[in-house]
Amino acid sequence: MRATLHPAAAIGAVLLPLALGACDRSGEAEAPPPVRPVLYAVAKPVERTMFGPFAGTVEPRYSSQLGFQIGGRVVARDVTMGDVVKKGQRLAALDPIVPRFGLVRAEADVADARAQAENAIATEARTRKLFEGNNVTQAQLDGAVANRDTAQARLAQAQASLQKARDQMGYTELKADFDGVVTERSAEVGQDLTPGQAVVTVARPEAREAVVDIPENLIGAMPMDGRFTVSLQSAPEITALGTVREVAPFADRRTRTRRIRMTLDSPPAPFRLGTTITVSLSQATQPRIPLPATALLSEDGRDFVWVVDAAGTHVGRRAVTVAERGPGRVAIGSGLAAGERVVVAGAHSLSEGQTVRLSDEPRP
Questions:
Q1: Strand residue runs (E) in 1-146
Q2: Contact between residue 229 and residue 279 where contact means Cβ atoms under 8 Å apart
Q3: Contacts of 117 (CB under 8 A, 6+ apart)
Q4: Most buried residue, 53, 103, 245, 343, by most Cβ within 10 Å?
Q5: pLDDT band at 34 (very low <50, low <70, confident <90, very high)
Q6: What are residue 273's phi and psi, to 5 degrees?
Q7: Over the stretch 244-276, which tens digit does the pLDDT of each residue have?
Q8: What superfamily in CATH does domain 52-61+206-285 come from?
Q9: pLDDT per residue as tens digits for the range 62-121
């Protein structure tokens, strides 16, 4: 005998699975969102800004490249880099043989010219006496006077050549024009030099300055009238103050940096030429909170950050005022309090009140 299913029971059998499926989907929709792990930083206001630090060296303000006034072969070089020299001290010497030959020839020319001049003077005197006795003509007297003047001019010329030859003998020795320190040598013994070619560079140690290369994109932010702190890299506790004296008009094509020269104010003795230094400038400013640029969320011309609540479980969006923007960093002027925890990564993927899990350590 075949069983017959009641119509109401059949309808119930069809609706029951649908109802159960609806209950399952409702339960999935009401499930809480997953906990989001986040990186955070603690808001710490700063009241001073630091420009730098930049590495540089101590260099002389005044230096001179010294060379011989005549050409020749170097036979002696008495100093090297780092030597302290006094005014008048010999630095190098040329082979004196050729200039000495010139001096001997000039001395002989002077002796010959002097003898010619003395003879011309005596001849002119005798001719004048004969002219007074009507024994010679006026033309003969005029010729004797002309010969005398010519001989005296040649004597003067020979004496000038002799003085030049003596000077050139003196030019075979290169001497320091002032007290200083040798910072560079450009010639060696046995080298043939042309007149004026550099042999050594001597610097005046009493006027020292700090030389530093600063990236071109930071030049606009550099306070031109600031007093920079200059410290030795080998001994940071030894410092001096420096003021900007000169800024290179163009950036270096390879490094894209500009060379800055700073006058040192009474530098200590350890600030020797060539010493490596660090240059920086600390200035007071309005309190601001530095954060990574990734912490900032900008919408409709306004800036926001995500702040973690006191329990450390939820985040909320907070409007802030940005006081300064830089490459990879921002400074918050208002909207945050000291000690608050700010999310620094994933600002565009959070929602208001979202549950979060903080990392073990704050990001510096």
A1: 36-38, 40-42, 46-60, 63-67, 72-77, 84-85, 90-94
A2: yes
A3: 148, 151, 152, 154, 155
A4: 343
A5: confident
A6: -60, 135
A7: 999 999 988 898 999 999 999 889 988 988 899
A8: Efflux pump adaptor protein, beta barrel domain (2.40.30.170)
A9: 889 999 999 999 999 999 888 889 999 999 999 999 899 999 999 999 999 999 999 999
What class, spelled out in words, does domain 96-171 have in CATH?
mainly alpha
Q: What is the maximum alpha-carbon separation in the chain?
A: 192
Cβ contacts of 208 within 8 Å, gap of 6 or more: 58, 59, 60, 61, 264, 267, 271, 273
Pull the structure tokens for residue 61.
């303000």
At residue 157, the pLDDT reads: 95
What is the distance between the alpha carbons of residues 349 and 343, in angstroms, rounded to a whole number?
11
The pLDDT assigned to 6 comes to: 47
**What pLDDT is recorded for position 133?**
87
Query: Using alpha carbons only, what angle is made at residue 23 by residues 19 and 24, rounded to the nearest 5 degrees?
Result: 120
Q: What's the chain's average pLDDT?
A: 85
Q: Domain 36-46+286-358: state its class.
A: mainly beta
Q: Are 213 and 255 in contact (CB under 8 A)?
A: yes
327 phi, psi to nearest 5 deg: -65, 105
69-94+173-205 folds as OB fold (Dihydrolipoamide Acetyltransferase, E2P) (2.40.50)
